[in-house]
Write a structure and sequence with these properties.
- With 94 residues, this protein is of the alpha+beta class.
- The protein folds into 2 domains: 54 residues, no CATH class; 36 residues, no CATH class.
- 40% of the residues lie in helices and 11% in strands.
- The protein has 2 helices and 4 strands.
- The strands form 2 sheets. The chain has a two-stranded antiparallel ribbon.
- The radius of gyration is 18 Å and the shape is flat.
- It starts with 11 loop residues before the first helix and ends with a helix.
- The relative contact order is 0.08.
């Protein structure tokens, strides 16, 4: 969301207001995730969906470019770093 909306704001006060609004919206989820992270489960039940636990320092990547064969692009988590490296190198070579 930040790249879509916040980057278009011209004044610092508007950027700060946007940041505050995002924090206010995400605070309940962040609190829930922090509470659930104390449990030993690998999946967190949010009431909306199941969210995998994220370890501190874990790399989280999403993209729509990893599956070149599919014409219908959807953002998916990229969890295969070797495949990501291959796709990026092939793209650079083109």
């Amino acid at each position: 969301m930040s790249r879509v909306f916040r980057d278009r704001l011209l004044e610092k006060k508007d950027e700060d207001l946007f940041d505050d609004m995002i924090i206010e919206c995400l605070k309940p989820l962040i609190d829930l995730l922090e509470e659930e992270s104390k449990n030993k489960n690998s999946v967190i039940e949010t009431g909306i969906s199941k969210v995998p636990k994220i370890q501190k320092g874990q790399l989280i990547l999403f993209g729509d470019f990893i599956d070149k064969e599919n014409d219908f692009k959807t953002y998916k988590e990229i969890d295969d770093l070797q495949k990501l490296t291959t796709v990026l190198e092939e793209t650079l070579d083109d």
